[in-house]
Amino acid sequence: MDYDFNFLDEKQRERLSRLMAFHLRHDAAIERSPDGYVSVQKLAEVIRRKIAWVKPHHIREVAIFDTKGRYELDGERIRARYGHSIEVRLDYPEADADVLYYAVAPEVVAQVVAEGLKPTARKMVHLSASVDQALEAGRSRTENPVVLVVDAKLAKQRGIKILKASDRVFLAPEIPPECIKTLERSG
After folding, report:
1. pLDDT tens, 6-15?
2. What is the pLDDT of residues 109-151, one digit of tens each?
3. Total domains present in the chain
4. Are 66 and 130 in a shared domain?
5. pTM as predicted
6. Is 23 inside a domain boundary?
7. Nearest CA among 57, 67, 94 for reference residue 171
C-alpha cells in the first residue's frame, strides 16, 4: 500500500471528490467494468493530470469518509454508487421504502406532477430517503426547492423497479405522475 498518512484538508477533499465523481459518473473514456468499477490506481493516474499529488490512498480516503455514500470500494476498485450519465449496470437491492422524496424548482412542480419524473442528464431518477435530504439535493439546482412525495409502494406495484444505492439515495428509471404529490407543510 502507498499510505503516507497525510490526511486531506477539506478543500483538497472537496476538489478531489468532484474529480472522482466526474470521472466515475461521466467519463466514458476511462476503462471500467460493466458494473462501473474502475481501478483505484487508474483513477489516480487520470486525476493526477489535474492534481499532481494524488495517490490511490487519497482516493480511498475520500471514498471512505464521504458522508453522502457516493462511492463504493471493492478491493482495488472503486465506483460511483449513483449519478451516472453513462451506461452502468447497477446491482443494488430493491428499495423497501414505501415513501421517498424529490425536490424540484417551484416553476416545474405542475409539469412534474402532470408528467412524472424522468431522468434528464443522468440515467436514473435520484430519490431521497427524507425530506431534509431531498431539500439538500434540491438546493444544488434551485434556491427554494419544493419537495415532492413519491409513493414508492404504488410505483413498485406499477412495475417500476426502485433500487437502494445508499442509505440516502434511491434510483428509478422513472416515476409516473400518479405516484407523485406535493409535500403538504404544516405550520
Report:
1. 578 889 999 9
2. 999 999 999 998 889 999 999 999 999 999 988 899 999 999 9
3. 2
4. no
5. 0.84
6. yes
7. 94
- In a shared domain, residues 74 and 106: no
pLDDT for the residue 120: 84
Nearest Cα neighbor of 149 from 164, 168, 135, 165 is 135
What is the pLDDT, as a whole number, of residue 6? 57
The answer to whether position 90 is within a domain reads: no
Q: Which domain holds residue 57?
A: 10-80
**Minimal CA–CA distance to 8: which of 64, 81, 75, 78?**
64
Q: What is the pLDDT of residue 158?
A: 96
In the three-class reduction of DSSP (H, G, I as helix; E, B as strand; rest coil), residue 76 is classed as: coil
> Cα–Cα distances in Å, from 181 out to 22, 125, 151?
32, 16, 8
d(CA 96, CA 70): 20
Output the CA–CA distances (angstroms, integers) from residue 48 to 19, 25, 41, 120, 151, in the order listed: 10, 18, 11, 30, 44
CA distance 14 to 111: 34
Question: Rounded to whole angstroms, how far apart are CA atoms 42 and 92?
Answer: 24
